[in-house]
Design a protein that fits this description.
- The chain has 249 residues and is α+β, with helices and mostly antiparallel strands.
- Helices cover 37% and strands 18% of the residues.
- The chain has a three-stranded antiparallel sheet with strand order 5-6-7. A two-stranded antiparallel sheet has the order 1-2.
- Helix 1 packs antiparallel against helix 3 and helix 5 packs antiparallel against helix 6.
């Protein structure tokens, strides 16, 4: 059989960031990624118990589906990765997705989901750094949008911290330490960490997190659905069953 006959059909996925947060030399700066349709080989990844247990199954799947050359998966910001997850589900099992919410069956069409609109004026090509003035303290911070590589580092640090103190719950403060690049002009890691641990007011922390939530590029996963009690806005759940709803996993 010819090589052409073995060629998999592909689709180009538009990234919510439009590629603005990546260096011009980075292929992600095109704002697009080409992905192939899922095959039985990728279903093997979804059912791999080792991947499921260590929490890497969805990342293994996306890496297998990306056909664009020279993509460093660790560079992907979280919002762009969400767009790939949605695309992978559609390419694998179609756009119709059903899940349980408050003991009701909810059925949605994933193809209607849009990327959030971003304010391009707030972005500088190739720069993943943004300024924010904390409303209560007046301190000026620089923050970045977390990448897949950052998420891995956070997970490793949290595991280490919880080994030392199993009762501790430092998830929020640890994430903030990776998000914040500088505080009042200082980009020293010790200064950032000391600020988060000692001086970061709860009001300011919430203001920053709300700003980032509204600001960051992502897929709009919040949609209105009709329930027995009336219309309600819900967030579409994404997990292993997102790809294999009938799997007993």
């Amino acid at each position: 059989m010819s090589e052409e006959k073995h060629k998999f059909p592909t689709e180009v996925v538009d990234l919510p960031s439009k590629g603005l947060v990546y260096d011009k030399e980075n292929p992600l700066s095109s704002g697009k990624i080409e992905m192939k349709y899922m095959t039985a080989k990728e279903e093997d990844i979804l059912s791999n118990q080792s991947y499921i247990t260590n929490g890497t199954v969805l990342d293994k799947l996306l890496k297998a589906l990306i056909v664009s050359k020279d993509i460093n998966y660790n560079d992907l910001i979280v919002g762009d990765k969400n767009a790939l997850l949605i695309a992978a589900r559609i390419l694998g099992y179609g756009s119709e997705y059903e899940f349980n919410y408050k003991d009701e069956k909810v059925k949605i069409d994933l193809s209607i989901l849009d990327n959030k609109e971003i304010d391009k004026k707030l972005f500088e090509q190739g720069k993943n750094e943004f300024s924010f003035t904390l409303p209560k303290s007046g301190s000026i911070i620089t923050f970045k949008l977390l990448t897949h590589g950052d998420e891995n580092k956070i997970e490793r640090e949290l595991k280490g911290l919880k080994k030392i103190n199993p009762k501790a719950s430092p998830d929020l403060s640890t994430r903030l330490k990776y998000m914040i690049v500088s505080i009042d002009g200082s980009s020293e890691t010790k200064d950032v960490r000391e600020f988060v641990d000692t001086y970061f007011l709860a009001q300011d922390s919430r203001s920053l997190r709300n700003y980032i939530k509204d600001f960051q590029p992502d897929v709009n996963l919040n949609i209105p659905v009709e329930l027995e009690g009336g219309e309600e806005n819900i967030t579409i759940p994404i997990g292993l069953n997102f790809f294999w709803p009938d799997a007993d996993l």
